[in-house]
Amino acid sequence: MQRHGCHPRSDWRERVESIGLTYHSHDHGPYWDESACYELTAREVDVLETAANQLHYLCIDAAEAVINNNWWSRLGIPESAVPAILRSWERDDFSLYGRFDFSFDGATPKLLEYNADTPTALVEAAVAQWFWLQETRPEADQFNSIHERLIEAWKRWRGNTIHFSSVKEHPEDQQTVLYLRDTCEQAGVKAKSVFIEDIGWDPERKQFVDLDNEIIERAFKLYPWEWLWHEEFSAHLASDPLQFIEPAWKMLLSNKGLLPILWELFPEHPNLLPAYELAAPLGERYIRKPKLSREGANVAWVEGGVIVEETQGDYGEEGYVYQALANVPEFNGHHPIFGVWVVDHEAAGLGIREDTSKITGNLSRFVPHFFRHSS
Amino acid sequence: MGYYHAPFRNWYALPYNHFDPKTQRYFYGGQWGAAPYDTITNISQPLPQAATLAQAQRTDIVVVRSGFGSSYHSYGGWVHS
């Protein structure tokens, strides 16, 4: 694996905006960063793909263990959510996607977390870096069939209407959901949009409705389940009036409380880092993560029993887990995290974000990648 | 919603077998014919799509909104992972 310095395309902003990546920069510089790229070997791509495929099913096995052993409190899942999760699990409700975050030194990927409910950085992984590849290295390949796999996954919903929902005033989320809606329509499925805040409850029909008062039967939501369950309309979820994508059972996988359970069930698995519900087994070097958090918020890096780096945020109410330090590689002060996308239960592509901090946060940069089959 | 035409299980803008003196034709089921539509069906249930559309156009139902989304705003807008 190598990190290359690159000359950005002179009109890169216009180019990425034209394919939906309108949020390419943040206050501190570019978020989409093509001044660098990563070159992987075909074998390294195989290793990442295999790890994601194996871990996805290990996570499902761990989720089943949570259900069978009533380990809900270990995940900080409210009791009110349990019946809906169980029904969703029994029905095997459709799951579209997720993203594993790995540390990867070129040899063995190590699971940092599984963003199985509301993963983002999708437009950049599925589309922006693919066009970048075609325009800068058309002879090379990329670990990326995300777009095609999404369309294929949606095809099972032909004949139905799916509502697509995100919060208002959040361009990245809106673009992500717009992109997913586009893949859905390309699959021949009818689609409508409704903001999370605009979803209505019709007390007479006992159904969720959109702004046209049409019943929402199934909805893709870019909104965390743990938030839905704490909000006013959660009382109406008990009767399953609509089918959400991602489904309620994904609450089990998107929870960092699953990390100690994975380590407990599959100790010494090469793709897992030791993880516990207490810090003591890890000594004085570990990462402390909230069971539920977003964008690396409230993560603490502890060395010698002292916090040496910590991100801010409002998470941690449900408790923390403690994970051994990963061997995150460094390239001239940049630390890459490898996000492997899973679409319809199968690994489908890779997006790399890097940060000068060891904790990848919401100001990290997305850097494209390529590989050559002959390498 | 207009007028319910039982044989066609749907609503239309004009009454069932409405006669237009200018064209000398009768309206039924969204079409015009030279003679009134003759059927023994006088009671039916609307098609599912027609019922959904009719429900959506009712103005007497009070729909409650803003029951989702509060956590996003209280968390200062971080949603991603």
Describe, in short, the structure shown.
Chain A has 375 residues and is of the alpha+beta class.
Given the helix and strand composition of chain A, which structural class is it?
A: alpha+beta
Helix content of chain B: 10-25%
Gyration radius of chain A (Cα, Å) is 20 Å
Largest sheet composition of chain B: 3 strands, antiparallel
Number of DSSP-assigned strands of chain A: 21
Tally of helical segments of chain B: 2
- The percent range for helix content of chain A is 25-40%
Q: What can you see in these coordinates?
A:
The complex is a heterodimer of chains A (375) and B (81). Chain A has 375 residues and is of the alpha+beta class. Chain A is 27% helix and 25% strand. Chain A is built from nine helices and 21 strands. Chain A has helices at residues 12-18, 42-69, 72-75, 82-91, 122-136, 146-154, 171-186, 225-228, 258-265, and strands at 2-5, 25-26, 29-30, 36-41, 97-103, 110-115, 161-165, 190-193, 200-202, 207-209, 218-221, 243-245, 275-276, 286-290, 300-303, 306-310, 320-323, 335-343, 346-355, 365-367, 369-372. In chain A, the strands form six sheets. In chain A, strands 6-5-18-19-20 form a five-stranded antiparallel beta sheet. Chain A starts with a strand and ends with a strand. The mean pLDDT of chain A is 93. By secondary structure, chain B is α+β, with helices and mostly antiparallel strands. Chain B is built from two helices and six strands; from the N terminus they run E-E-E-E-E-H-E-H. Chain B has a three-stranded antiparallel beta sheet, with no helix packed on it. In chain B, 14% of the residues are buried. Chain A binds chain B through residues 113, 115, 117-121, 167-168, 170, 172-173, 195-205, 209, 212-215, 222-224, 227-228, 230-233, 236, 254, 293-295, 297, 313-314, 362, and chain B through 52, 55-58, 61-72, 75-81. Strand 9 of chain A pairs antiparallel with strand 6 of chain B, so a sheet runs across the interface.
